[in-house]
Amino acid sequence: MRFRSSLCVGALFTLVTANQLIPNVTISNSTSVIHQLSSDSEFAFVLETFLSFANGGGAATGEILRAASQIKPGDMESFYREFKYLADQIADQATSVNTTRFPVSAREAHLRASSYYRAADFFLHGNASDPRIQTLWDSVLEHYDTAMKLLPDPPVQVELEGSEFKIPLYFYSPPKSSHANTTSGKGKRLPTILVGSGYDGAQQDTYHQLGKEILARGWNFVTYEGPGQPTVRRESNIGFIPDWWSVVTPVVDWLRTRDDVDIDRIALGGISFGGQLAPLAATREHRLAAVLAIDGMLDLYEATFRQFPASIQKLYQNGNKTAFDAIVWEAYKETTDTSQKWGIDQGLWSFKTSSPFEWMTKMSKMAITQTMLDNITCPVFVASGQDDHIAPGQPERMARMLGDKAYYHLFKNNVGAGEHCAIGAEPQLAMATLDWLDEVFENPTSRSS
């Protein structure tokens, strides 16, 4: 979620471990340091996100730039129309290719079509009954899965049983030609990195964000989704849940049954809201060698709630559901701010409620406390973006609260990596996180140093 705010620069440093100084990082200004593809700040951020997939084969720069040039700021239907048009065009190219003769061409086009269908769906969740939410997702999966079958080593697709939901996952093995790191595998058993997305991202996104980099290092790469996330929200009809370990633990159970997984080197990563979900799972799931929180987040509720005026906050705190919902909906009708509208749309959809009060309440139950962090038994890579406006200060707080279990890394603006989750600087993200993981796997005693 993208809430813009104007905060002052903090330069005070606090000692956390013998080897780390964790800055009190706050946002320097209310204007992105990255060139914007739209005068609508929310559209610009989402366009930047999908443009960044080009780093991992999930988009093409010219195709994204063309769509961006046609989208009308503030017009969510315009965003849908342009990406639906682009997706259809690239899908037609993909299906016209002779896959036997030209599997690479077909695969790459199917991957881009899948991404563009995801983009077309992005701003439609204000009407949960809109049939396009399902039909577009069918196209997302159709093209992505077609592309996966055209890989030299197609991933294994599995649907695990959760308590009241299905857990879809992809298990990717590294290509035989990959240059494995020195720590990669004891025989056939390889380090395995399980990565989850967040509030609005799909597991297919993570293949382009980190997956190809993980595979290039000779490690297994696994993605999954839980309640509230795109496929599970649609197919199991359930929103986000506070006991996220009930999603991750069945996946870890399944991984431990495989003879190609080194069970002592399973790491869990989380991107965006996943930077809260992954540590949340690790408070109960203790068979992990490491956690990647990209970016570190303690409480999305807190970051969201503080955006409301004090008078509205008081209504919520007093338990006045009727008045709180009424005033939020009135403000929603009056605002033209895309970020605010989408924030509410996506919040209600992903938590499966029609009440802003219930959305806030459900989200508040997912907060991570000091006591919970004390239960994490593995090292945690806590990422922060110098220009990340979503939960400012929370990565730094998380690192301090974790103490010597934390390894803190600030992605900086001056090299184009300071956006939320280092969007657009995926090579830098992979270098920082995966090199740290390699050291963790090789030398457990240096995991937080």
UniProtKB/TrEMBL annotation:
<dbReference type="InterPro" id="IPR000383">
    <property type="entry name" value="Xaa-Pro-like_dom"/>
</dbReference>
<dbReference type="InterPro" id="IPR050261">
    <property type="entry name" value="FrsA_esterase"/>
</dbReference>
<feature type="domain" description="Xaa-Pro dipeptidyl-peptidase-like">
    <location>
        <begin position="186"/>
        <end position="398"/>
    </location>
</feature>
<dbReference type="Pfam" id="PF02129">
    <property type="entry name" value="Peptidase_S15"/>
</dbReference>
<protein>
    <submittedName>
        <fullName>Alpha/Beta hydrolase protein</fullName>
    </submittedName>
</protein>
<dbReference type="GO" id="GO:0016787">
    <property type="term" value="F:hydrolase activity"/>
</dbReference>
<feature type="signal peptide">
    <location>
        <begin position="1"/>
        <end position="18"/>
    </location>
</feature>
<dbReference type="InterPro" id="IPR029058">
    <property type="entry name" value="AB_hydrolase_fold"/>
</dbReference>
<keyword id="KW-0378">Hydrolase</keyword>
<keyword id="KW-0732">Signal</keyword>
